[in-house]
Amino acid sequence: MTPSSSIAAPGATPAPEEHHDHHPSYLVDGTTIKSWLLTVDHKRIGLMFLFWVLLFFLVGGIFALLIRVELLTPGPTIMDAMTYNRTFTLHGLVMIFLFMIPAIPAVFGNFLLPLMLGAKDVAFPRLNLLSLYIYLGGAFIALWGMLNGGLDTGWTFYTPYSAHTTTTVAPVLFGAFIIGFSSIVTGINFIVTCHTMRAPGITWFKMPLFVWAIYATSCIQVLATPVIGLLLCLVTVENLFGFGMFDPARGGDPVLFQHLFWFYSHPAVYIMVLPAFGVMSEVVATYSRKNIFGYRAVAYSSLGIAFVGFFAWGHHMFVSGQSTFTGGLFGVLTMLVGVFTAIKVFNWVGTVYKGAVDFRTPFAYFCGFLFFTVFGGMTGIALGTVSLDVAWHDTYFVVAHFHFIMVGATIMAFLAALHYWFPKMFGRTYHEGWGLVSAALIILGFNATFIPQFLLGNNGMPRRYYEYPERFQALNVASTAGASLLAFGFIIIAMYLTYALVYGKASGKNPWRSKGYEWVSESPPPTHNFVGPQPVFPEEPHFYVDPKKAEVPDAV
Amino acid sequence: MSELLNNILFLPEAASTFAERIDFLHHFVVGTTMVMSAAVGLAALFFFFRYRRRLPAQATEYVVPTLKTEFLFVSVPLVFFLAWFGIGFRDFTWVTTPPKDAMDVYVMGKQWMWKFAYPEGPNGVNVLHVPANRPVRLLITSRDVLHSFYVPAFRIKMDALPGRYTQIWFEATKPGTYQVLCTEYCGLSHSKMLAEVVVLPEEEYEDWIQEQRRGRLQDRQDALADNSLVPPVARMVEQGQVLAGTQGCLKCHSVDGSQHIGPTFLGMYDREEKLDNGQTIRVDEAYITQSMMDPGAHLVAGYQNVMPTYQGKLQGPETAAIVEYIKSLRTPNVREGASEGPAYDAIQ
Ligand code: HEM
Ligand SMILES: [Cu+2]
Q1: CATH number of the domain encompassing residue B203
Q2: Which ranges does the record mark as transmembrane (chain A) (predicted)?
């Protein structure tokens, strides 16, 4: 795509050209190490998060491949049982706490929220920097613990096992506890930013949908994270000093642990997936040049998911011995989450209707995303159908389901975001051909990895199995083959994006001719985002109506 | 049709009444999911081609949904979801509510095995025998950490919690052997915590249980006969072993089964001995004691009456010790220990 200056920014007051030289982009405004490490610029903080999040994704990914290779044959393949148990724990923990939860909010949320709101920065820039260091501090404590002594409880830390295992639980829990603060701090910062920093003209119902999604996510983070913090403290105390909160041998209740754990961890899956929904709303609008079909429905459904997400935790516990009635209640509430997601899906497809579709890399990820969300979401509904969950609970069906919806949707959105906003962040473009090829590989690889796991679950293979009965082997081999395809796709992406970072063509300000608000500023933006007077935003985001046709057709 | 679907979906054999219900709903839900995914996917695909961009600066119409459209978006999925839920919840209530006439079995998970016990009946490890076509209620608990009792062929699963009982029931429809797996991560050998359910036809099950009962009654008698005096049994056995040596018993009786001047002690206790007068006698404490004091009273067929009497040479406790020693040379009995329901023990 050649850069074009012919298209005007959406209703914003463009910066006068002559000022340009005096306002270097945020990337080159200060080049010392210190100017990066101590920066309070939300864009630089976002970029540093990107670096660490990608690094942890690599770590988690390597462990995923080790798991898959081990499962290639029914018996021991490359490691012993203890090592395997530590490997899947490490994989789960790193992927969830160090990659998925911060990935989109901390990287793209940080980078884009102020730009999309016409603000110079987030509400509390120093707190923002602090949240990066809290995250890193927690991450290194947890990783240190995992490598020194290791942890074999799985990322769910279920008691009483976690209170009795001889592996080192305490540092890992403590690390996760610290990371929680990073999450809370970021959440508060975003909420306040949305409330106080919106440029003139941006009313609540003119906020970009990505902002809506981040806002809803932040609410969950602020409300739910303290619960897991408390829980992690209690388990640590139990493990170190033998308190009897959760261990029946000491008068405690193991099911209480599960309630507290899922009260956080169920909403946490929406912390991971809502930002992904937000990214996709932006991507589909830009590449089909359409206003979002049912903007309000999409915005409200984010809040709806955030809200009912708090009341569905018990669907992880249908066979934990809770009462039949409770099971039913949590089952119905789960269905509501499904309905809110369905609203979004229909509205995304509706957005393409009568659009002008440009099929580019991020749009390819949108297609993959649509499939993973519909299929992953519907299998979630199937799991919420209580009687079916009796058979599927804790089998590979569940593993496949959550990889589809959480991991699949989030990875699609993360990659779409990376490609879509790459020119915004670095002012350069990547090779479109390689982008499409690797997107195809990733989507294919992902399906090949996890569709066999649905079938494994049907066939009865429990999760967290180091060895398995012979009859499960064929499907496991298929899944491992898919995983290598997936890994191959990621390697290609890493290569051409690194290349583009250094040698990529200059992208110009708005290579996609998007009318998203963030494209109003320069690409890459200067340190304080906008040059000259604060921009105003008279139109709603993604308003692509032809000015020559003059009038906006009214709502049907 | 449903057989075919089960194969496509890799479902294991359906061998319980609950499995049949589950599979029906499974087909309904998965079928709808596939149709829906395909519909959304095809609609999207159609739109991508129908509305592809023709000019770089092409503008679009402003389209928003009508209230009716949004209403459809909400209500169609809601109706389906609630319908599934309704059927699913009915079946769930059914499987969590055992019928009154169900037969009880206690199940205890323990790192890394499953123990089964029948009230007033036998117990066993890693093999559960049940009759076909009769409701069986499982009362499940754990001795250490969480486990989960899962029989894929029955489509049932229930967590085993330490300090609590949970319950689930099933009615097996086909005799056969089905795998039991543990689905709650429980440490090092979680994936080796396997067991099996053996479903027997009703009559065979009755035979099996009778046989187990006999063994158990015998154990009861042993326990009663063992009127343990002061020294604990293990010490008595040791004592008896020493005495058997010093008193010269072992000069004529072997303990490894080999033939000698007298019958071997190995497996003697509880054996049916053929006597030279044509009768048979069961070897029990009384018979052993009598043979020591009055060896010629009941002569075993094929042996000569050469054994001296020990009358007056052995004290009461010494005699008892030798009897215990001989008892300890039984061939191992599979059914040991009392068979009450499992009790929760604290783990250390
Ligand atoms: C190449 C891609 C991946 C592969 C092949 C893969 C493979 C697996 C496998 C086989 C398990 C099951 C372990 C078990 O139950 O024994 C697993 C668990 C899990 N994976 Fe992945 N995974 C991949 C990517 C991801 C990503 C990207 C995330 C998150 C962002 C993730 C999050 C998890 C979590 C949370 C678990 C549960 C861990 C547990 O059971 O304790 N995975 N993964
Ligand atoms: Cu277990």
Answers
A1: 2.60.40.420
A2: 45-68, 88-115, 127-147, 167-192, 212-241, 261-281, 293-313, 325-343, 363-384, 396-422, 434-455, 475-503
